[in-house]
Specification:
There is one protein chain. This protein is an all-alpha fold and 336 residues long. It is 76% helix and 2% strand. The chain is built from 11 helices and 4 strands. The strands form 2 sheets. Strands 1-4 form a two-stranded antiparallel ribbon. Helix 5 packs parallel to helix 8 (192-232). The longest helix has 43 residues, at 237-279. It is globular and about 70 Å long. It is found in: Cell membrane. Residues 52-309 form the G-protein coupled receptors family 1 profile domain.
Length: 336
């Protein structure tokens, strides 16, 4: 089975001297069928993520009604998803399907995985901001417009990108014991940076996502209670409008909750993958399949958010159509 998945031309683990020039910088590390599989799957993910998140970004740009504080966060999250498909996904694929001195030496390996780690941290930061936004909307509906403004949302987004960079550089904070250590394969190496990296992914990310899920349960209970209370007191048009706004709150919160749920489902397997690498004995081909499945699911998450917005929000859905029509008109030369 190993012959059908992994190219066995290169050693799994070992040390190499600076003068050793017998190993090429890059070489194919998987069989041709698996390379074809990678190419097809990741091209589909790339197209879906790039097109979908471009629709989100351009919808925010051309539709004034979408430029609300919550959607500032959604806009920035779409930018992170596009960066994931343009930078993190290609670098991870290179590290998975190629081998050689520029890929498997400890000093080089970290460069291929840090974009995914950084952008995952950015996405989690946005999910935290969206949860805080929904919590304020549920608990302080009258003060919400003055507490959560577009300016504050933009500042929060900027700080999120900056703070996430701290977690993104974790693999670079320590020197490598031996920069010419060959680390491809199933044998785990335990440098300080890798240990910190794994600890953050295995324990911190699931803990944060679990707390966010608890917050969303609390938000839904508060919003539902307000809707039920207001429905019992509807005697005027103003109260009807208040009840309508509460229903809109539940709908918006449900949409952002689905985004959180999709992220959790897609990225938790990556946490399990690191746990397996550290604590479970597996063969090379078994680990390769686990790593591949977890990474495909994680990167596939960037395709889901635009679909969720279109499914849950009619304004997003109609604006998507306007964006597509404008693109088609520009390509054909017709007037909009």
């Amino acid at each position: 089975m190993a012959q059908s998945i992994v190219n066995d031309t290169f050693p799994v683990y070992g040390y190499f001297s600076r003068s050793n020039t017998s190993w090429p910088a890059f070489a194919l590390g998987v069989s041709i069928p698996w390379l074809a599989f990678y190419s097809i799957v990741y091209i589909l993910i790339f197209i879906g993520s790039f097109v979908g998140n471009q629709l989100v970004i351009w919808s925010f740009v051309i539709e004034p009604k979408l430029r609300r504080p919550t959607n500032v966060l959604i806009f920035s999250l779409a930018v992170a998803d596009i960066a994931t498909c343009l930078v993190a996904m290609p670098s991870t694929v290179v590290a998975r399907v190629f081998t050689g001195t520029y890929v498997c030496f400890e000093s080089a390996r970290r460069f291929y995985h840090w974009p995914a780690f950084y952008l995952c941290s950015v996405s989690i930061g946005h999910l935290i901001l969206i949860t805080i936004d929904r919590y304020i909307a549920a608990t302080r509906p009258l003060q919400y417009p003055t507490i959560v403004t577009k300016t504050r949302s933009k500042i929060s987004v900027t700080l999120t990108w900056m703070i996430a960079s701290i977690f993104g550089v974790l693999p670079f904070l320590t020197d490598t014991p031996d920069p010419y250590l060959w680390v491809c394969g199933v044998t785990n190496y335990d440098s300080t940076s890798v240990t910190v990296h794994r600890f953050v992914i295995i324990f911190t990310i699931p803990a944060i996502l679990f707390l966010l899920c608890l917050f969303y349960i609390r938000i839904f209970l508060i919003a539902r209670k307000h809707v039920l209370d207001s429905s019992d007191r509807r005697r005027s048009q103003n109260l009807d409008e208040s009840n309508s706004s509460r229903s809109a709150l539940i709908r918006t919160t449900t949409t952002t909750g689905l985004v959180l749920g999709a992220f959790t489902i897609c990225w938790i397997p990556s946490t399990c993958k690191f746990f397996i690498e550290v604590y479970v004995q597996t063969s090379e081909e078994q680990l390769f399949i686990i790593q591949t499945a977890a990474e495909i699911l994680a990167f596939g998450n960037s395709v889901l958010n635009p679909v969720i917005y279109a499914y849950r929000n009619e304004l997003f859905r109609s604006t998507y159509g306007r964006v597509v029509r404008r693109i088609c008109c520009c390509c054909s030369g017709c007037k909009i």
